[in-house]
Amino acid sequence: MPTPPTPERPSGLPRRAVLASMAAALPLAGLPATACAAPRPAPARAAAPLPGGGDLGENVIVLDPATPGIQGKLDEIFRKQEKAQFGTGRYALFFKPGTYDGLNAQLGFYTSIAGLGLSPDDTTINGDVTVDAGWFDGNATQNFWRSAENLALKPVSGTNRWAVAQAAPFRRMHVKGGLNLAPDGDGWASGGYIADSRIDGTVEPRSQQQWYTRDSALGGWEGAVWNMVFSGVEGSPAQTFPDPPFTTLEHTPLSREKPFLYLDGDAYKVFVPEKRTDARGTSWGNGTPRGTSLPLEKFYVAKPDADAATLNAALDQGLHLLLTPGVYHLDETVEVKRPDTVVLGLGYATLIPRNGVTALKVADVDGVRLAGFLLDAGPENSPALLEVGPEGASASHAANPTTVQDVFARVGGAGPGKVTCAIVINSNDTVIDHTWVWRADHGEGVGWDVNRADYGVRVNGDGVLATGLFVEHFNKYDVHWLGERGRTIFFQNEKAYDAPNQAAVQDGDTKGFAAYLVDGEVTEHEGWGLGSYCFYNVDPSIRQDHGFAVPEKPGVKLHGLLVVSLGGKGQYEHVVNGVGGPTSGDTTVPSTVVSFP
């Protein structure tokens, strides 16, 4: 097992830097309508219906095996995006079914690559889809916001390199060889997420600190640093936490794969996979995946110049939304009111609210599918970036839950941003499948009160399941769970680096706000593979009483817990409540609890 990376930082930079009706005219008061001095205005003409379908925009690049100069196009986009961590470029690279020889698709920021078949094996690249960290001196901890989906790869060397950090999903992939999750030279690495994939060879995390793999099939897995979690994975390691730190569930209790764009002949469609219970292995391994196909004509194909009023008009008209790559500025809330609506982003389409509005709200309805976009806080404080269900939502959605997949939230970094709570889940039975909710610790508009965001995720709904929950750096609680029967499989957290002193993070008599707080009234909750790290580089004397705080009740159970002090910059007194030994010194060794209580 490789030695865990140390948190020493060159040039004094933080660890990350080494790591969106017409009204009738009323009569004047006290006069009959006929006595109005001004004539009643003519009725407004009804707006023409918005069209469904259409082209996918200039930043969706569609390739087929006969396209000339594919490698040159891939290289051109990579040159633009390799270092553009907070830039505005957004790209989706789509490969039509067929075979492609001799390619190396290097992926930079805000770049997605995907096949357009119904199965990954419909589109084969004899070559690689590569993420490395040469742009950052071999440090992969900032390789965010990129993805690979729905492809088969036959790596040139036998092993594909996918050295990513957060918000970089690897979905519906078939690697006909091995997979290396570390950068060249085994430098810093802090990721990551695999789902619905088959890796014929061995996955080597090497220097990767943590990882979550769901509903996949592996030829093997070799190595671990702090926290490796598996659910529903054929070929996964056995349960051995904490030595080595493998947390393994035979099945994922509930999953439904992310919707994806594909070609049916010459027609674009969006496939919406069906729900699986007690899932294990891929959804596509036994032939055609099960689910529903929606023709592109049922989608409003949005371009970045679309405003919130247009998006809402499309939704009210009964269309789904396909957000093509780009940055969307929203001066009002986009509201999803219809059951089974799909909102699918391509190429990290980014929604930025203006004037302190909530970017996106979902009604308390069945089966909404939110997938594949980034929510970026605006400079005026929003109550939330995403709200699933209104306050007080009470309907059951167990048969057809709303899913939130590869939906990422950011506060600061690209510029000043503020929000009270980034994501609020009010609807019962919602499934959160892979999210990174990040209050920025580097970039522009960063500071304790500059990109203020007290809470990352608040769960009020009952029966909510999170599979792959990454939440970092919030001023108070990163996760606050108030609903009953909540479950989390894999949690990764860092406390806010920039707390100025102990008083700034004091929660009454408790030192430090827990990374993951389950409300004291909750009677049933369960979690597996949960980790919290601290790096209080502004005031290294800050102490956290614990990383996790939960009510001590028979129905509340946590498994595979760890806390880590990164280089002694702050310390934890305990892991959960008053249980678990303290971290100490600067050796970056986790303190663990196998099961609580």
Alpha-carbon distance between the termini?
Answer: 29 Å
Backbone CA Rg: 24 Å
The parts where pLDDT drops under 50 for at least 5 residues are: 1-45
Mass-distribution shape:
globular
- Largest sheet data: 12 strands, mixed
Mean pLDDT: 93
Computed structural class: mainly beta
Tally of strands:
46
What is the helix tally? Answer: 2
Q: How much helicity do the residues have?
A: under 10%
What fraction of residues sit in β-strands?
A: 35-45%
Walk me through the structure:
The structure is a single chain. With 597 residues, the chain is mainly β. It is 4% helix and 39% strand. The protein has two helices and 46 strands. Strands 23, 24, 25, 27, 29, 31, 33, 35, 37, 41, 44 and 46 form a twelve-stranded mixed β-sheet that branches. The longest helix has 12 residues, at 70-81. The protein is globular. The two termini are 29 Å apart.
Structural descriptors:
597 residues, disordered N terminus, nine-stranded parallel sheet, mainly beta, 39% strand, twelve-stranded mixed sheet
Give the SSE layout:
Blueprint: E1 60-63, H1 70-81, E2 91-95, E3 98-106, E4 111-115, E5 123-130, E6 146-149, E7 152-153, E8 159-161, E9 170-171, E10 174-175, E11 178-180, E12 193-195, E13 198-204, E14 210-214, E15 217-221, E16 227-231, E17 246-249, E18 252-256, E19 260-264, E20 267-273, E21 275-279, E22 291-295, E23 299-302, H2 308-316, E24 320-323, E25 327-330, E26 334-336, E27 342-353, E28 360-362, E29 369-376, E30 386-388, E31 403-411, E32 421-425, E33 431-439, E34 455-459, E35 465-472, E36 479-481, E37 486-494, E38 506-507, E39 510-511, E40 516-518, E41 525-534, E42 543-544, E43 548-549, E44 556-565, E45 571-572, E46 591-596
Parallel strand pairs: 1-2, 2-4, 3-5, 4-6, 5-7, 6-9, 7-10, 8-11, 9-12, 10-13, 11-13, 12-14, 13-15, 14-16, 16-17, 23-24, 24-27, 25-27, 26-28, 27-29, 28-30, 29-31, 30-32, 31-33, 32-34, 33-35, 34-36, 35-37, 36-40, 37-41, 40-43, 41-44, 42-45
Antiparallel strand pairs: 18-21, 19-20, 20-22, 38-39, 44-46
